Amino acid sequence: xxxxxxxxxxxxxxxxxxxxxxxxxxxxxxxxxxxxxxxxxxxxxxxxxxxxxxxxxxxxxxxxxxxxxxxxxxxxxxxxxxxxxxxxxxxxxxxxxxxxxxxxxxxxxxxxxxxxxxxxxxxxxxxxxxxxxxxxxxxxxxxxxxxxxxxxxxxxxxxxxxxxxxxxxxxxxxxxxxxxxxxxxxxxxxxxxxxxxxxxxxxxxxxxxxxxxxxxxxxxxxxxxxxxxxxxxxxxxxxxxxxxxxxxxxxxxxxxxxxxxxxxxxxxxxxxxxxxxxxxxxxxxxxxxxxxxxxxxxxxxxxxxxxxxxxxxxxxxxxxxxxxxxxxxxxxxxxxxxxxxxxxxxxxxxxxxxxxxxxxxxxxxxxxxxxxxxxx
Length: 376
Hints:
The radius of gyration is 34 Å and the shape is rod-shaped. Mean pLDDT is 90; it is low at 1-15. It has helices spanning 2-12, 19-33, 37-49, 57-77, 80-83, 89-103, 110-133, 137-153, 162-174, 178-190, 195-207, 211-224, 229-242, 245-258, 263-275, 279-292, 297-318, 324-345, 356-368. Among the domains are: 19-108, no CATH class; 295-317 and 330-376, no CATH class. By secondary structure, the protein is mainly α.
């Protein structure tokens, strides 16, 4: 009988247990149920230290169960000792279950493991959320990744929770773990999770120094998210900073063609013209923006600024003109430009300007135009 039993053991892992072995597991189970965790720990440690019983899947299952049950009892009763029956107790529970699963070649423990995995995953996620709220982003990342590894690498037949992936990505992002952030955010980006996940993926690639991929992320995101304004403006800004003005203009023109009533697209194109000192084109585009949004004080302020700059340019050009009649004509044009600047500036209501930067710009332009009495 002994030889047959040993053969069965070798072939089936823990498939066949002797009455003595079953008795030991029952004893441990009873101790755990009775909340006699220290006594259960002594027995379990003896079993994991023993070469023979350390090969039994149920030994590691019981160790995981002990770690997990004691931990949750400690949380419930606010008992730190129970939560620290072992160092890194929840991690040890997960490691023990994984050893059990590896040894359980016939999957007999799967039904018992499944609910315990769910509880572990939920607790790791709770810990991650708490650590994130306390700005302990590296700890949050570790906890979220544990929860994610359970949902993706166990016997659970559930779809991966995209919110968990997003939380993991955020923790990686805030921890400045750019490679990990890109890994998780790329997964979300492909699934069209949200504009924000695409935005963060763009930033993470920039932080890695990969401008080419960052640019491609935005272009893909704009297609995936129906010419989203935030992504369009991010790409325009990137192209402008890289000096790709022609591509920036072309890209905005395409965006405007798809969403002609979007005031900010017209406004941004006007800004590019203004920065390129093409003031007449900028004014035309700002005017177009006003057709779709009359509430933005920057539209009026920037039109006024463009007219002021036109007047300054004209006056500067007169310095090289020797014909006095021509000089007078140009001076008249400059005055008209300045008058237009005053007219548009008057449309910016100071009392409605909540943005301090805008208020400062209004004051500076008023000063340049030698206006008094409006600024408070």
